[in-house]
Specification:
The chain is built from 8 helices and 17 strands. By secondary structure, the protein is α+β, with helices and mostly antiparallel strands. About 5% of the residues have low confidence.
Length: about 425
């Protein structure tokens, strides 16, 4: 069940064109004087010109999580992915790969496909019926009395796309960063047993958060605020990100329970030959990553009030439901939870400097039957509520960052992944602006 469409029309300023050298110098100064261990200055969250540079430097040059193959299971299936000024068609091809095409007709620029998802053979622009093949070649553009022209010069513009362990990534750069392949080698063994290529979409939720995309990502990268997630705290230990030295008094019992559960999980992973170790290279490589397999509270199986499984069907060739969650963060726009009974993917897609679309997709085993093997409301309840709570937190931060009295504040020790995200962002922006 895919979510309905949401209007993602960006503000005119997000085209990224015409940023004056003086403005770039100002942005360069902001990046240079960024204080380590502190949040960014206000323009990073509020300035439309800086947002335009974000779109070119980050979303225009790096590999971006777009969708899962479960969203485009058959040849001809497509999803449209929009962020900033860009609209892309991600189309499953006959070779079990994806074609990534800019959703801009080469006649007068109309959107070619206007639905968020669907199935198509050829791509037909609804304005003047220019028709393109699934590979983007122009195959029909005629009108009575017109002089012939070279159709080969008017193919849809293409972007790069690749599928890794059932996840689809796209890159708009002419020459994409090459270290993504090395990052893929890190996470493929963790994801492979879940066999996402055989999963199906149970539900998809689109939420527009009134906040800059970086605030969305910062909020995701820490659990300092997890007291504000009562549903999630039933199964996710709220001590995530803490150490022996930083556990507050009121969480000491939870910390001990977490340690015992993690030791039990690691024992089972070793028995089954599943990787579980923490790999954390969030700001030390271009394709930044953190991945690990971590215990859940209660029965340790899923995001439910008692930690019990939410679907009766195991994914892939997993041997056991009680495998906690494999948690993965990828820079710059995604995070994931891979469980024994289902998978949840999250993608953040900037709209403008103060709005971000957060797309959450729940995947279950292909043979899982709604109402028999899982209850959809129960499957989605915890993260639906958590997403709404996170939306409220992000919007509070956006309001604060827009205040004349805002100034960067210090990150706590448990927020080290927020610091790593900002370090990664500053490095990539400096490389671009330079």
């Amino acid at each position: 069940m895919l979510a309905p469409a949401i209007n993602l029309s960006p503000a005119p300023s997000t085209t990224g064109a015409g940023i004056a050298g003086e403005k770039l110098a100002e942005i360069s100064d902001l990046l240079e004087r960024r204080r380590a261990g502190f949040s960014l200055e206000s323009p990073f969250y509020t300035d439309p010109d800086l947002f335009a540079v974000d779109m070119r430097a980050i979303f225009g040059e790096h590999w971006i999580y777009a969708a899962s193959v479960a969203e485009v299971p058959e040849p001809g299936d497509y999803v449209t992915v929009e962020y900033g000024p860009y609209s892309l068609v991600v189309l499953r091809n006959d070779d079990a790969g994806v074609n990534v095409l800019h959703n801009v007709c080469r006649h007068r620029g109309a959107r070619v496909l206007t639905e968020p998802t669907g199935t198509t053979g050829n791509l037909v622009c609804g304005y003047h019926s220019w028709t393109y093949s699934p590979e983007g070649e122009l195959i029909h553009a005629s009108a009575p009395g017109e002089i012939d022209f070279d159709k080969e010069c008017y193919a849809l513009k293409r972007a790069h796309g690749k599928i890794v362990a059932g996840l689809i990534f796209i890159c708009l750069a002419d020459e994409p960063p090459t270290d993504f392949d090395e990052t893929a080698k890190i996470f493929e063994p963790y994801l492979a047993p879940h066999e996402l290529s055989t999963a199906k979409v149970a539900y998809q939720q689109n939420i527009v958060e009134e906040g800059n995309w970086k605030l969305v990502m910062e909020n995701n990268r820490e659990c300092y605020h997890c007291d504000g997630h009562p549903e999630l705290a039933c199964s996710l230990f709220p001590t995530w990100g803490l150490t022996d030295e930083t556990v507050p008094k009121h969480l000491e019992d939870v910390w001990e329970r977490n340690q015992d559960a993690q030791a039990s999980l690691e024992y089972r992973c070793r028995r089954y030959g599943l990787p579980y170790e923490v790999v954390e290279e969030l700001d030390t490589r271009v394709a930044g990553i953190r991945i690990s397999r971590e215990s859940l509270d209660g029965d340790g199986e899923s995001f439910s009030p008692d930690g019990h499984r939410l679907s009766k069907k195991l994914l892939g060739d997993l041997p056991d439901f009680r495998l906690g969650r494999c948690s993965m963060h990828l820079q710059p726009n995604s995070w994931f939870h891979f469980l024994g009974d289902h998978v949840i993917t999250f993608g953040a897609f900037p709209i403008n400097e103060h709005q971000t679309l957060v797309r959450t997709t729940w995947l279950v085993a292909d043979d899982a039957v709604e109402g028999v093997d899982y209850d959809l409301d129960k499957l989605t309840h915890t993260w639906k509520q958590t997403n709404l709570q996170d939306k409220a937190f992000v919007e509070l931060c956006q309001q604060g960052a827009s205040s004349p009295v805002y100034e960067p504040g210090p990150y706590m020790k448990s927020e080290y992944q927020v610091e790593a995200f900002i370090n990664w962002y500053v490095q990539r922006m400096q490389e671009h602006v330079a």
